[in-house]
Amino acid sequence: MNMTGLFNFSPHCGKSRSLLALYILHTLQNRQKSGYEILREIEELTGGAWIPSKGTLYPLLHQLEAEGLITADSADGNRARTGFTLTPEGRETLKKIVAMSGEHHKKLAHFRHLFLAIFGGGTCPEKELLFEIQMLVNDMPTGTEKEVEAILERCREELKKV
Q: Do 148 and 139 meet the contact criterion of CB atoms below 8 Å apart?
């Protein structure tokens, strides 16, 4: 399943990035990783539902390297053991895209309506309500996190009783 073009994310000024490119930048924030490690992480995070092909991942890694967002370091010149690292420019690109998370959440909400139209088959009021709650949480003002968390914890406890 190729999802590289499904969702694109971009800062106000800058190149649009695929979900896979964004994940690569995200996962390289903490440490150097090989392409194989990145594939295994995605497999684990998606429960095996999506594993990009090597033919998708490696050209993208090389493109990000050519753009100066990541660097590649081959151990002993062995291409099979290439580790990728986020550059300062890559870190800044990721930071700008993540800073626009509210806009990206709204974009995903629009796609949600497409998925419901195709796969929904009817209305489900409790799922609609849950989605609305999620959108409210995404848009909550800074400084209200603890209050919102307490409300959601009470809600969770009530749902467990059902």
A: no
CB burial readout 128-143, b (16+ within 10 A) else e? eeeeeeebeeeeeeee
Taking residues 122-151, report their average pLDDT: 82
For the chain, the first-to-last Cα distance in angstroms comes to 37
pLDDT in tens, 39-66: 999 999 999 998 999 999 999 999 999 9
For residue 69, the tally of other CB atoms under 10 A from its CB is: 25
58 near 72, Cβ under 8 Å?
no
Predicted local confidence at residue 1, as pLDDT: 34
pTM of the model: 0.67
Residue by residue, DSSP assigns the chain as ---TTT-EE--SSS--EEHHHHHHHHHTTTS-EEHHHHHHHHHHHTTTS----HHHHHHHHHHHHHTTSEEEEEETTEEEEEEEEE-HHHHHHHHHHHHTHHHHHHHHHHHHHHHIIIII-S--HHHHHHHHHHHHHHTPPTT-HHHHHHHHHHHHHHHHH-
